[in-house]
Amino acid sequence: MPLLAIAAVFLIWQATYSITHINPVLLPSPGRVLARLGYELTNPMFLRAMVGTLGEAALGCLFGAAIALPVGYAIASWKLVGAGLTPLIASSQAIPAVAIAPLLALWAGYGLASKVALCAIMVFFPMLLNTVLGLRQVDHQLIEAAQLDGAHALSLLAFVQAPLATRAILTGLRGGFTLSITGAVVGEYVIGGSRGLGQVVAVQSNMNDTAGLFSTVITLCVMAVTIHVAMIGLEAISDPTKEMRNK
Questions:
Q1: Deepest of 22, 132, 178, 210, by most Cβ within 10 A of its Cβ?
Q2: Share of the chain above pLDDT 90, in %
Q3: What is the rounded average pLDDT for all residues in the chain?
Q4: Secondary structure (3-state) at 116
């Protein structure tokens, strides 16, 4: 079905281009965009930009998870922590990434650190929400039974809460990693200072290179979809409740 949907989009795109004879600067033909995409995928500079963006996204996702997971555990475990932090965290999501990026550049410089920080901020909220949701959905009777058997905070987390919340946590990681691509591109576009696809987009935009912009956007979409599918596969492999549900 996704392939059929993509084919339909390209057919409508080609029909619009052929019927309206629109200026290629405004809307290039699908054939021209695909030819440009093929060229870019053989261009070493474009491939290095892809790797740079993926690296920033991966580091941002890693740092975001390192903060979101323990904070999510604290919110799910202690009501006072949840009551104090939840409104602040929710209100922070109203701040657009474009507004945060210049501040991060001032604080962390124009190098890798500011882009990674922006990615971490963008992925933090979905990871946090899914962690809290997963931990709160663990059956309290199981927790009480484990405590009666002598389980304490760390052993309870390691052997009961974390395994049963794995599916929700991995869903948050999937959404976060996909968002981290956006964070990396926004950081590269607004902050600059590194060679990534955000810088490629900036150059193509300044040159009115519409075919190049379309090819870069398609590349970003494919990267995001690939990460999404890979994370779904990881969820299926790592889900400890899958065998129980099958039975």
A1: 132
A2: 13
A3: 84
A4: helix
